[in-house]
Design a protein that fits this description.
VC0802-like, eight-stranded mixed β-sheet, seven-stranded mixed β-sheet, 11 helices, binds S-adenosylmethionine
């Protein structure tokens, strides 16, 4: 099968995990870029990227790239694209654009120029043109114009891939599914130890963890992908990819809890919708009251950041979280994401790792706290396998 360049969009900070995911599904020439990773692949890789990648937001197939030195260049180059390979008169299309250019201050204007180029391309060759449909188009076209560099792509995903299809309820500030999967992967969790989210809200981290542990494809619950409407759609090939054997048994425990009964009800509904009720346990309880459900587990959680709370309350909450982790969770590794520097200061634990991420537009830090048994010094010695003296150090 013919290979071409494919660009996968993601969130800032997730480029490296996405690159690892891509290599794992057999991508070649994997190149991390800014909020994206590009690679070389054929049609089957394009389908797999959409169906399997947990940290992908959108998969694009570039059809042209060129320099835009003056305004007219955009229209002229866009008109030279062999559009009839991708579109026919009976089909509809939409255009969206990401533009940062002195020539095109308004991204709508860039979209309009490409729309005109496509319309004129068809009118001149066929006397008619395909229609524009921004809501439910057959073909989605994406323009990326950065400075004087322009790339025109076909969007093979359609709705953003974070819309997995299992969510039927939103809690208070749910974390994006792609960010949740990325956090779990950055934490190095592969389904090999028990997993706890004690402030689970609508259950996103729990569901993503269960999908990782069981090898459930990220796109299994989705109804459609945009490439299914492409002229070259290979139904047989996609059906083989869709029906391949990905899943595995998992005996690890995945537990979620939240102080809000309403959030837990939403989490249960989402979990049920994902067919994961047997894989995940949910309990309504304040984290400060919870007893560790297992030994030596991994916690990945996003507590409230305090946008709606007073600074003093956020400091108190994080201080209590820190105390509880120290008192009850020895042997665990806890990963916490937050935008609240005050919160992190109040935890009173030294992180072993800090990763900068964004939750929506909020800059956040994702921090790892190793909760050693005994003192840190003792644990390091234990890890190295050195004999401890009878007396505490
Ligand atoms: C930012 S939300 C978590 C969103 C979640 N990750 C999701 O995807 O839906 C924070 C959650 O912490 C919960 N929470 C706040 N204080 C808590 C406490 N002391 N114990 C347990 N849960 C708490 C809130 O009820 C809320 O659901």
């Amino acid at each position: 099968m013919k290979k071409f360049k494919i660009v996968v969009k993601t969130f800032a900070g997730l480029e490296q995990v996405l690159a690892i995911e891509l290599k794992a599904i057999g991508a070649e020439a994997v190149t991390p870029e800014r909020r994206a990773v590009s690679f070389l692949g054929d049609k089957s890789m394009l389908y797999k990227a959409n169906f399997l990648l947990r940290t992908a937001l959108r998969v694009l197939k570039p059809v042209a790239h060129f320099r835009v030195g003056k305004k007219e260049d955009l229209y002229n180059h866009a008109k030279n694209v062999p559009w009839s390979e991708y579109l026919t008169i009976g089909k509809s299309f939409s255009i969206d654009s990401t533009v940062q250019s002195e020539l095109f201050v308004n991204s709508m204007y860039a979209s309009l120029k490409v729309k005109d180029a496509i319309a004129d391309y068809f009118r001149e060759s066929f006397g008619k043109r395909p229609s524009v449909n921004q809501e439910d188009p057959d073909i989605r076209i994406h323009i990326y114009l950065m400075g004087d560099y322009c790339e025109i792509s076909l969007d093979s995903s359609g709705e953003s891939l974070h819309k997995r299809g299992y969510r039927i309820g939103q809690g208070e500030a749910p974390v994006n599914e792609v960010l949740a999967a990325g956090m779990i992967m950055l934490a190095g969790w592969k389904g090999d130890s028990d997993f706890l989210d004690p402030m689970c809200g609508s259950g996103t981290l729990l569901i993503e963890a269960a999908m990782i542990a069981r090898g459930i494809p990220a796109g299994i619950y989705r109804k459609t992908f945009a490439f299914e409407k492409w002229l070259d759609f290979d139904e047989q090939l996609f059906s083989e990819i869709y029906n391949a054997d990905y899943e595995r048994e998992s005996a690890i425990r995945i537990v979620g809890s939240d102080i809000s009964a309403q959030s837990c009800a939403i989490a249960r509904a989402n979990i049920k919708n994902a067919g994961l009720s047997k894989a995940i346990d949910i309990e309504v309880i304040d984290f400060l009251e919870l007893d560790p459900p297992f030994e030596n587990g991994v916690i990945v959680t996003n507590p409230p950041y305090g946008e709606r709370l007073r600074t003093s309350s956020i400091s108190e909450l994080y201080q209590s979280i820190g105390n509880i982790l120290k008192q009850k969770y020895a042997g665990y590794t806890a990963w916490i994401i937050s935008s609240s520097e005050d919160g992190f200061k109040s935890i009173g634990l030294k992180p072993s790792e800090k990763i900068e991420l964004f939750n929506g537009s909020l800059p956040c830090s994702f921090r790892c706290f190793e909760l050693f048994r005994g003192t840190h010094k003792q644990s390091v010695i234990l890890k190295k396998g050195i004999q401890l003296p009878d007396q505490p150090i």
